[in-house]
């Protein structure tokens, strides 16, 4: 039994974002080696921070 189908962009979104971050971490000379989990963790942190900033901006816009 198959679940609800997902578009390719939804499935590849997080992995492609992590791949881009991994490339930037390697090219940026931040460290000699970059672990496989580092770009995934960094993508999650950036997504969380963006959500927090957008929530605060929405609250500020709502109260003005």
Automatic annotation (TrEMBL):
Cellular component GO terms held in the UniProt record: nucleosome; nucleus
Name listed for the protein in its UniProt record: Histone H2A
An example molecular function term from Gene Ontology annotations: DNA binding
UniProt main location, coarse: nucleus
InterPro entries in alphabetical order: Histone-fold, Histone_H2A
Assembly with partners or alone: The nucleosome is a histone octamer containing two molecules each of H2A, H2B, H3 and H4 assembled in one H3-H4 heterotetramer and two H2A-H2B heterodimers. The octamer wraps approximately 147 bp of DNA.
Top-rank taxon, per record: Eukaryota
Residue intervals passing through the bilayer: none
